[in-house]
Amino acid sequence: MNIYGYIRVSTREQNEDRQLVALREVGVTDKFIFMDKQSGKDFNRPKYKQLLRKLKKDDLLYIKSIDRLGRNYEEILQQWRLLTKDKGVDIVVLDMPLLDTRRGKDLMGTFLSDIVLQVLSFVAENERTNIRQRQAEGIAAAKARGVKFGRPPNPLPVNFHEAYQRWKFGEITGTAAAKLCGMPLATFRYRAEIYKNAKIL
Question: Which range of residues forms the domain containing residue 185?
Answer without folding.
Answer: 160-197
